[in-house]
């Protein structure tokens, strides 16, 4: 488009337009200055008018006072003539009192006239000085006003010349542009292209509006996602805190379980020690029996039929209810589902309750076994006391005790106790392993 329109001409026209605007601003400023000076001149004129009126008033007052003084002088002259006439009437003799009165009256009149005249002279001189000062100020203001008027007229002339030159230049440029536009053959093509460009601009603006709308929607979604992310972070933080609390509870519970396990192991060792001591004491204190092993076995088998059968039945029932069966009944399939923190806490409480139940059952089992050991020791002591002091060949006490029904029951009870203790320890190990797995998950 630069080949159809001269860029230099447009720049010169813009520059001329700017200069015209600057000149208009200058003219406006000068007009404001002239208006301010005219207002000052009017103020000074009003002040001068006031001073003139005051001077006139003072002149009138001076005239009035002069006339009053003249009338007073005339009055005094009349009085003097009266006194002279009186003196002449008295034969030329004037008394001292009359002379003193006349002299005092003349002196007072002269003093009053002199003071009033001096005051009037001072007032008139000050008024003359003020009038001269104001006249000088008015003359200076008039000179400034003449200078401003000359500058204003010069500015007006220059502004008119510049406006005329700018108008002529603008007309010249417009004529050249009209000639160039008239000589263009591709005007229609340019119009079509201009219309296409306008349509493209409209489509781009529409696309821009769509993009801005999409950006707004995305920003809203981003804000929503940010808020949701903050909520998730808060939930994650709360879950982490609850997980740390659960881990602390789990560690405390593990310590308690280990302590209970250590106590149970100590109890088991103590019972085993007591059982071994009871065996040794029973073997050491038993007296030799002279009955043959076959007769003893037959006698023992015959004498223990009702009681031994009931004890075997009880032992069989006790051995059937081992902690392994209880552990199998209380086993929870934790690997089949993904536990949340709340479910994990509920499962942990369930495991704690079940561990307490198993511990209570183990304590009951230990108590029952201890009671059975005490009962067996009492039976052994009673049998030793009931045996005869003489007769038959002596048997080995250990062999007799082992082959006797009481020894078999003791051995069976020991085996059951050992199995139950092993099963309880195994169940506790499995529970601890399950807890470790879930804590790791």
TrEMBL record:
Determine the domain of life of the protein's source.
Eukaryota
- Region (Disordered) residue ranges read 278-328, 379-399, 421-441
- Compositional bias (Basic and acidic residues) spans? 426-441
Has UniProt tagged this entry with the keyword Lipid biosynthesis?
Answer: no
| Coiled-coil residue windows | 6-54
- Which ranges are annotated Polar residues under compositional bias? 278-293
The Low complexity compositionally biased stretches are 319-328
**Keyword annotations:** Coiled coil
Stated name of the protein: Uncharacterized protein
What organism does the UniProt record list as the source?
Answer: Leptomonas pyrrhocoris (Firebug parasite)
């Amino acid at each position: 488009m630069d080949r159809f329109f001269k860029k230099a001409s447009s720049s010169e026209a813009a520059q001329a337009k700017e200069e015209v605007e600057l000149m208009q601003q200058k003219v406006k400023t000068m007009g404001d200055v002239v208006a301010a000076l005219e207002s000052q001149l009017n103020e000074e004129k009003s002040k001068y008018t006031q001073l003139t009126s005051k001077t006139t008033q003072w002149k009138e007052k001076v005239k009035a006072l002069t006339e009053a003084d003249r009338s007073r002088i005339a009055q005094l002259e009349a009085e003097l003539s009266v006194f002279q006439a009186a003196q002449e009437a008295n034969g030329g003799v004037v008394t001292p009192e009359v002379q003193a009165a006349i002299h005092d009256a003349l002196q007072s009149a002269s003093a009053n006239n002199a003071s009033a005249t001096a005051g009037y002279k001072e007032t008139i001189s000050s008024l003359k000085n003020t009038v001269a000062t104001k006249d000088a100020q008015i003359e200076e203001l008039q000179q400034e006003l003449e200078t401003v008027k000359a500058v204003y007229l010069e500015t007006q002339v220059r502004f008119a010349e510049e406006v005329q030159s700018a108008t002529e230049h603008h007309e010249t440029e417009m004529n050249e542009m009209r000639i160039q536009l008239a000589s263009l053959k591709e005007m229609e093509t340019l119009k079509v292209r201009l219309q296409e460009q306008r349509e493209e601009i409209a489509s781009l603006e529409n696309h821009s509006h769509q993009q801005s709308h999409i950006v707004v929607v995305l920003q809203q979604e981003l804000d929503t996602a940010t808020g949701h992310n903050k909520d998730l972070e808060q939930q994650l933080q709360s879950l982490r805190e609850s997980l740390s609390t659960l881990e602390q509870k789990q560690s405390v519970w593990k310590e308690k379980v280990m302590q209970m396990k250590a106590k149970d192991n100590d109890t088991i060792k103590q019972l085993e020690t007591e059982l071994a001591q009871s065996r040794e004491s029973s073997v050491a204190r038993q007296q030799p029996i002279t009955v043959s092993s076959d007769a003893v076995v037959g006698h023992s088998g015959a004498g223990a039929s009702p009681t031994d059968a009931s004890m075997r039945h009880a032992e069989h029932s006790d051995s059937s209810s081992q902690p392994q069966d209880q552990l199998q009944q209380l086993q929870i399939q934790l690997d089949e589902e993904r536990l949340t923190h709340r479910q994990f806490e509920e499962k942990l409480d369930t495991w704690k309750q079940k561990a307490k139940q198993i511990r209570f059952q183990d304590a009951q089992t230990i108590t029952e076994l201890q009671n059975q050991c005490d009962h067996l020791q009492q039976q052994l002591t009673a049998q030793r006391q009931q045996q005869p002091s003489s007769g038959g060949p002596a048997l080995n006490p250990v062999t007799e005790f082992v082959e006797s029904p009481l020894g078999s029951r003791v051995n069976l009870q020991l085996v059951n106790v050992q199995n139950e203790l092993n099963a309880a320890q195994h169940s506790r190990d499995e529970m601890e392993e399950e807890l470790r797995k879930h804590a790791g998950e």
